[in-house]
């Protein structure tokens, strides 16, 4: 069965810096994308691209290099241009999150392209004209500049969140929480130590222990954590003597 991710390609137009190509490959692979198209890159293949790709060199190895954007998009049915520039006359503009939902709908039955322009000027008007919609990253209006690979990472992340449940790729190790009996023993131990060191007057404890119970009750202490705290309490009363030598 073809994965939705297999129907999505990232297209970089006229990339000047090979490091951005490598960083883009890494950004793609972390989000499950693997189809990279390069339109007339200035330097590729390149050692810097391979270096910054880290363990995503396979994305570079399978990258398609074309002479024009038309070639990179020839078999695509839906094209999203990622751009931060305001245009006087353009297609529909949406946020990358909204665009990712469009990708989810279209990738089930169509080839989808995510198109990025050059590092310095982004998509040209002619390139933007070849896109069905434009997507923009809602950034600080006083400073909207983003590195190319960063923009790819954000778009790829939004696509992954749209296509998946967003669950972690690993399971948290289960922990054993302290029982109520464990906690009561901790509180009693704490009371004894605080009385011993003179922090509280046993005849007038005020509401100190009510506050301590609320404090530790909110933390959902683990069994090991209770043991750790009781160890500290024990050494508070009978500290170990360490040799200076």
TrEMBL record:
CDD domains linked to this entry: SpoU-like_TrmJ
Pfam families the UniProt entry points to: SpoU_methylase
Keywords: Cytoplasm, Methyltransferase, S-adenosyl-L-methionine, Transferase, tRNA processing
InterPro entries, per database record: Alpha/beta_knot_MTases, RNA_MeTrfase_TrmJ/LasT, SpoU_MeTrfase, tRNA_m1G_MTases_N
Key word Cytoplasm present: yes
Catalyzed chemical reaction(s): cytidine(32) in tRNA + S-adenosyl-L-methionine = 2'-O-methylcytidine(32) in tRNA + S-adenosyl-L-homocysteine + H(+); uridine(32) in tRNA + S-adenosyl-L-methionine = 2'-O-methyluridine(32) in tRNA + S-adenosyl-L-homocysteine + H(+)
Domain tRNA/rRNA methyltransferase SpoU type: 8-157
Function, in words: Catalyzes the formation of 2'O-methylated cytidine (Cm32) or 2'O-methylated uridine (Um32) at position 32 in tRNA.
Subunit annotation: Homodimer.
Family of the protein in this entry: Belongs to the class IV-like SAM-binding methyltransferase superfamily. RNA methyltransferase TrmH family.
Protein name: tRNA (cytidine/uridine-2'-O-)-methyltransferase TrmJ
The organism's taxonomic lineage, starting at the top: Bacteria, Pseudomonadati, Pseudomonadota, Betaproteobacteria, Nitrosomonadales
């Amino acid at each position: 069965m073809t994965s939705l991710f297999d129907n999505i390609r990232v297209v970089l137009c006229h990339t000047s810096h090979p490091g951005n190509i490598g960083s883009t490959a890494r950004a793609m692979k972390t989000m499950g994308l693997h189809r990279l198209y390069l339109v007339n890159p200035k330097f590729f293949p390149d050692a810097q691209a391979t270096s910054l790709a880290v363990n995503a060199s396979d994305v570079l190895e399978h990258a398609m290099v074309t002479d024009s954007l038309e070639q990179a998009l020839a078999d695509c049915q839906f094209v999203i241009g990622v751009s931060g520039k305001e245009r006087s006359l353009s297609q529909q503009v949406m946020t990358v999150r909204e665009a990712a939902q469009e990708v989810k709908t279209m990738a089930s039955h169509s080839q989808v392209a995510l198109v990025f322009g050059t590092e310095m000027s982004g998509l040209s008007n002619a390139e933007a004209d070849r896109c069905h919609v434009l997507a923009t990253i809602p950034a600080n209006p006083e400073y909207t500049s983003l590195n190319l690979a960063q923009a790819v990472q954000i778009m790829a992340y939004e696509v992954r969140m749209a296509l998946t449940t967003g669950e972690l790729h690993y399971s948290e190790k289960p922990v054993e929480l302290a029982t109520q009996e464990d906690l009561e023993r901790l509180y009693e131990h704490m009371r004894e130590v605080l009385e011993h060191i003179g922090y509280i007057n046993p005849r007038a404890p005020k509401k100190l222990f009510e506050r301590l119970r609320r404090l530790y009750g909110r933390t959902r202490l683990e069994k090991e954590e209770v043991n750790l705290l009781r160890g500290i309490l024990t050494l508070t009363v009978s500290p170990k003597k360490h040799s200076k030598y």
